[in-house]
Amino acid sequence: MIYESYSSEDTRKIGNMIGEKAKKGQIYCLIGDLGVGKTVFTKGFAQGLGISEHITSPTFMIVNEYHSGRLVFNHFDVYRIEDSDEMYEIGYEEYFYDEGVCLVEWANLIDELIPDGAIWIKIEKDLEKGLDYRKISVE
Asked: What is the CATH number of the domain that holds 52?
């Protein structure tokens, strides 16, 4: 499925729509260059889950947990992960295989740990279509 976004508000709405459809145990892998809107998408995704807490990127914490929605939301940012052993140290398997939903920013950096059946979302710019244009591909 391919979505087109022409603003950060569009990107948030697309994230919201996908979050509304999320089911327990699903893992969403979010990839894209710096500045494409991964955090904006994630905030929308959390809204779709009914999360009322303020969403922040867990760049230094690696994972943030949110419990105020219809499902537990485990938000990973693995940009600073240097090798897979760090993921084992934080107990990633407990998050990946629990009853909540996981969204992993920069998931391509740990793709060997991502279970089969994960949903991959790629956000890309296309400057020919405008500075704010984003193509959001969901597989």
From this structure: 3.40.50.300
